[in-house]
Structures are given as C-alpha cells and as structure tokens.
Amino acid sequence: MNRRAFLTSTAVSSVVAVSGCVGRLRGSDDNAGPAEGVRRDETNSPGDSSAYRIDFVDQAGTLGQVAQPQAVEDDYNNIVNEYSEDGWGEIDRNDLDVARSVFDENETTVGAFRPYIEDQLQDSPEGEAAARALIRGIGWGKNDEVAISGSVDAAIIVKSLSERFAGDYLDTDYFQAWITPATIPVVNGSFAHLPVTIAYEHEGDLRRDYIHDAVLSAPGVGENEEPIRRPENSVYADPGEMEMVTGHEYRKALKMAERGEIAEEGDVHPIRAVSSAVLANLWNIVDSAQNDFSFENPPPHGLVVHISQEFGRSVEDAFYDLTEQRLGYMENVGRGMQLFYETFDGRSNLAVGGRLDTPEFYIFPDSKKETAWNFEYDDISELAA
Asked: What is the per-residue DSSP string for 12-53?
C-alpha cells in the first residue's frame, strides 16, 4: 500500500472518508490475504477460536517497556525486534518523501517554505514558543504554495515539515510531531479528520499542541481564533462538545460512543473505532505516512483492534501529563504495532491491554470481537483464555 493509499485509510479505524478527510485506517483495501514474505500461522486465523499473547524479544534494545525480558527468540509466537534507533528514525524521517510528492504536484519545494517560517519567527509575539511560530509559518506557506482541500495532504505536510525544520530553527533538544485521528461534524462521528499533534520543550516544560489541519482555518475554529491550541483548550477536550474528539481523549470518546455520537460505519463497532483512534495515535508517532509498510493483499474491512479501558485511560493520563519518558512509552507501543503488522498479516486481530507502561499484546479471533467491544471480561487476558 503506498502512502496516499494509507492516508485514505487511517491506520486502524476503518471508517469512511468524508469531505476530503482521511477515512479508513491502514490495511483497509480490498482483496485480503497475507503480505509477501510475512509469516502466517494458518491455525491462528481470526476465524478460529484460538487466541494468545504475543511477546517481544528486544534484540536491538529499542522497544523499552514493550519488550519482555523472559521472552525467548525461538518461540514461534514471539516477535524479534532488530530495528536500531537509526532504523526507527528513518521510518519517521522519510515521511517527508510523501510530502515532496505533494510539492511536486504543485510545482513547489521544501525550501519554498523557509521565508514563511522565518517571517513568523521574526514577528512572533514575545514569549511565544518558537515551535508555534514555526507551525504558523508552515501553514502560511501551505496556503500559498499548495492547493489542497482536505486534511490528508495538509497533515502530512505540517507533520513532515515541522520535524524537518525544527532542527534548523528551534533551540530545543526535543521536538516530535504525529498525525492524530479525530471526529468532527462533517465526518459524522468517524475518526476521519486529521489534525497534527506536536510535543516540544519550552521554558523547561514539555508542551503539546493540536494543529488543526488547515492551520489558518479549520472546523470548530472561529475566523479569528488560534488554530494552534493546547489540547485541554480545544473543542476535542471540551466535555460539552459531543461532536468532536481525538483518540487522545479516550474517556470522552467512550462517552460519545455510548451516546451514539461515534458512527458505526459498515461493520466498524463504535468501540472498535475508539480503540483504533487511540492506537493510531501511537503508531503514527512511529510512522505517520506508513510508506515503509504495506499489505500485499490487505484485509477487506480494515484492521480489527481493541484496547482495554485500563490501557486507554493510561494513554490519556500520560498525554495530559506528558513527559519525555511517557511520550517514549507511547512511541514504544507504536513500535510494537509496527512489528506486529510486519510479522503477522492484517487478518490477525490485535488487542492491547495492561497499561501504557506495562502493555500486553494479544491476537484474538473474530469469535471474541463482540466480547471485546462490549467489555464482557474482567481482564483482557480472558480473550486468550
């Protein structure tokens, strides 16, 4: 699956694209089957009753809390990580290749954005974080240089260029950006809208901002309102705004699902959609573009996933009290997902339990889907019972 195909299939949510936003998550094209070279255990397909835990052997030492020290490499159901930090970094950095393809279509270049960024940095209000000025400059450049109408290209441009230019213009040792699935009214409660999240150091703190897709104007943002916002000050976190939420606001998303505000598109259960949005956030920290990974014959109805409420709450709590360590935990779970889908084909249903700092990965069969999505268990390990 190429980059553009992914961003018309947001990594795990499998919802339908509306109004130019991204829709179905990764692996949601038709003609299902295992990817070339992928290990496939025919006895453990989702149609069977078997379910089991997946452990990770961290041969390269880059998985952090996701790895299990007791796991052994020759266990068939274990996954061995061989990615170095530079290897993981390349998966993230080459997202810019996809943005360049958009620029080529518009006869512009990465370098054309520099004057916009420099103007905003020079004119930014005293005390404003330089990261916000950098994003605003990218937004002005995007509006002038690139003709786009939806959040797909906007998100990959903002995400890729912010990381590309952070090293040149920001006096900080830490900067991270990732694409974040969200619901807005025009996508009818599906996680098909794509703002960007940035995390950066400012005055000794690790801060987070939501970047609405168009940067200069976006759904839910008034004409004179700032579209770069702290998450807690956004409509996504507003408990009274029950039509907009991102996967980071897990508790609110659950309430919206219970109220029928999260759409059930096709066979996508609302709780599956919420789980998908949470996991997409984490996977996108590793690779927002997904141009390093493809299913040769992806599953016809998208990737089937579930997270426990304990895990979802722990992700939300970490996001709203973010430290470099907690963001590292989020990224490590995303790395585990990358390895999971590289190792098993897209028909292997993924459930994640435990907590962000002690995650548990399981493969579960189709026969356990309703049990999972209706939370009919005391512990997620019961899916593998």
From this structure: TT-----TTS--S-TT-SSS-BPPTT----GGG-TTSS--EE
Strand spans (E) along the chain? 52-54, 56-57, 79-80, 175-179, 182-183, 196-202, 205-211, 228-229, 245-246, 305-307, 349-355, 358-364
Closest C-alpha to 319, from 252, 250, 368: 250
Phi, psi of 135 (to 5 degrees): -65, -40
**Helix, strand, coil content of the chain in percent (nearest 5):** 40, 15, 45
Digit-coded pLDDT (tens) for 195-249: 999 999 998 889 999 997 656 545 555 555 677 889 999 989 999 999 999 999 9
Answer yes or no: are the C-beta atoms of 16 and 266 closer than 8 Å: yes
Count Cβ atoms below 10 Å from residue 208 Cβ, excluding itself: 18
Task: Give the angle subtended at the CA of 191 by the CAs of 185 and 180, to the nearest 5°.
Answer: 110
Phi, psi of 17 (to 5 degrees): -70, 135
* Secondary structure of residue 202 in the 3-state scheme: strand
What is the C-alpha separation between 384 and 382, in angstroms, rounded?
5
**Token pair recorded at residue 42:** 């025919």
Q: How far apart are CA 5 and CA 9, in angstroms?
A: 6
What are the distances in angstroms from CA 118 to CA 7, 106, 115, 213? 30, 22, 5, 21
Q: How does 304-340 read in b/e, with b if 16+ C-beta sit within 10 Å?
A: bbbbbeebbbbbbebbeebeeebbebbbbbbbbbbbb
Helix (H) or strand (E) holding 383: none
Q: Compute how many other C-beta atoms are within 10 angstroms of the C-beta atom of residue 17.
A: 20
Rg (CA), the chain: 20
Cα distance between residue 206 and residue 6, in whole Å: 30
Query: Considering the entire predicted model, what is its pTM?
Result: 0.87
Strand, coil or helix: 263? coil
- Domain ranges in the chain are 3-384
